[in-house]
Design the sequence.
């Protein structure tokens, strides 16, 4: 069984929602759509207070090559345009849409995106550009968490060419099962989306990588691929962070993405299974990215499960549907426990990149007492990027930014394997993240000055 070569850890899986079918969340009466839900420039608001918008209407337009359109999942009136606090307490531009009873009933009576907008002949006649343009118009971004605009990834810069599409179905983060549920319930749609992305990117080979704890999904997808030699399903060893872009490319192809390089530099494009599903919906039904599957989970949560969530509904409302915040809660994390971050504002809206909401009880939330480094090298052995985390964290703690840059802090993928492995409970990732952000900001200001 394949995996990446260096580092990695084996945290407990805790896939408490494995086997939970996807439940459709009712359309809310109000949504707040953030203009920045992706890597790149924020979208520019194209509606004003008092405007009436229909379900699926664009409310923010991509403002550059690396940017993405944003849409409303409900009909209603624009009741707010301005800054709100996101889940981490940071101000972000947004649009709030409020539905009247009439709007709500109209949306319920007229379900959208249930019949095909384009016939299979129309789709077969499309050019690569046609497909990529539809993906861009629909505002699709990487749904594994990174939120990089899919259109951009499928359009390599001049002089670069990909020969393989790698589709991430690894879902190596503990607790999360949203991709697993999607693969089990929509295998044909995901495969159709994969083939569309292959045509868009001009590649004739794709590998879907899935960890071996999801053999039902491996078997199901393989069964649907009989006779198709261009797409294969690869069973991957369970090891975190198997779904990291560079780790997945190495596991699937043996190719190593050099420091500072992009996957396309080694001929690979990586997309997530949920993005493939969104591409299928956009091309066949003309559906913009207005909802996604989110795992809402936690040991004490009574209604944990995999929910199809209108993007922009409040996280508090979603958690309420899943049973409400348990009394023993210690922290709420967006994403999984390894790469996810603790939120400070539960009233913030869900966004395109939110794959999971994890509520941990107090006794699992507290950090251990921090002790001095015992030079055990556990963090070095665990790092999948070949870095020296104990050293990077010290350089960052002492603001030695030049040295931290020289030691490759920008290559950190923020996987958390170092902190997880440290017997002294040192907050390695916290310092490294601070150092990485500072070094990236310094690099940016250098390039502006040139
Ligand atoms: S968080 Fe960064 S430094 Fe720590 S193990 Fe992951 S890649 Fe290495
Ligand atoms: S794992 Fe912790 S104790 Fe061991 S070398 Fe790294 S920082 Fe030091």
Sequence:
């Amino acid at each position: 069984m394949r995996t990446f070569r260096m580092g990695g850890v084996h945290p407990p899986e805790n896939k408490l929602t494995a086997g939970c079918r996807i439940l459709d969340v009712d359309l809310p009466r109000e949504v707040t759509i953030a203009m920045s839900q992706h890597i790149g420039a924020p979208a520019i608001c194209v509606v004003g207070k008092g405007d009436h918008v229909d379900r699926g209407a664009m409310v923010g337009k991509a403002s550059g090559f690396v940017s993405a359109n944003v849409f409303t999942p409900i009909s209603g009136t624009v009741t707010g345009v301005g800054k709100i606090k996101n889940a981490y307490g940071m101000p972000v531009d947004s649009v709030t849409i409020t539905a009247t009873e009439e709007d709500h009933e109209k949306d319920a009576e007229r379900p959208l995106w249930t019949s095909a907008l384009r016939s299979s002949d129309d789709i077969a006649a499309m050019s690569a550009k046609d497909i990529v343009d539809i993906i861009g118009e629909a505002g699709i971004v990487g749904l594994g968490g990174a939120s990089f605009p899919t259109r951009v990834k499928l359009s390599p810069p001049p002089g670069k060419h990909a020969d393989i599409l790698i589709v991430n179905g690894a879902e190596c983060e503990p607790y999360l099962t949203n991709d697993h549920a999607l693969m089990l319930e929509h295998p044909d749609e995901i495969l159709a989306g994969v083939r569309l992305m292959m045509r868009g990117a001009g590649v004739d080979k794709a590998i879907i990588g899935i960890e071996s704890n999801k053999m039902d999904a491996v078997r199901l997808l393989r069964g649907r691929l009989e006779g198709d030699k261009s797409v294969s399903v690869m069973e991957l060893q369970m090891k975190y962070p198997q779904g990291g872009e560079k780790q997945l490319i190495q596991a699937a192809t043996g190719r190593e993405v050099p420091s500072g390089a992009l996957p396309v530099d080694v001929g690979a494009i990586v997309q997530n299974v949920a993005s493939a599903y969104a591409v299928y919906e956009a091309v066949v039904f003309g559906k913009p990215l207005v909802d996604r599957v989110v795992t809402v989970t936690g040991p004490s949560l009574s209604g944990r499960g995999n929910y199809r969530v209108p993007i922009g509904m409040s996280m508090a409302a979603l958690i309420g549907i899943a049973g409400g915040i348990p009394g023993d809660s210690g922290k709420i994390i967006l994403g999984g426990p390894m790469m996810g971050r603790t939120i400070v504002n539960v009233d913030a809206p869900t966004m395109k990149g939110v794959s999971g909401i994890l509520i941990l009880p107090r006794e699992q939330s507290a950090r251990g007492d921090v002790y001095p480094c015992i030079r055990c090298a556990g963090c070095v052995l665990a790092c999948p990027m070949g870095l020296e985390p104990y050293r990077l964290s010290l350089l960052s703690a002492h603001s030695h930014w030049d040295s931290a840059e020289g030691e490759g802090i920008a290559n950190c993928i923020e996987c958390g394997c170092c902190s997880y492995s440290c017997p002294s409970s040192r907050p390695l990732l916290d310092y490294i993240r601070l150092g990485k952000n500072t070094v990236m900001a310094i690099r940016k200001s250098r390039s502006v000055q040139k």
Q: What stands out?
A: Residues 378-449 form one domain. The first strand starts at residue 22 and ends at 24. The first helix runs from residue 101 to 109. The two ends are 48 Å apart (CA to CA).
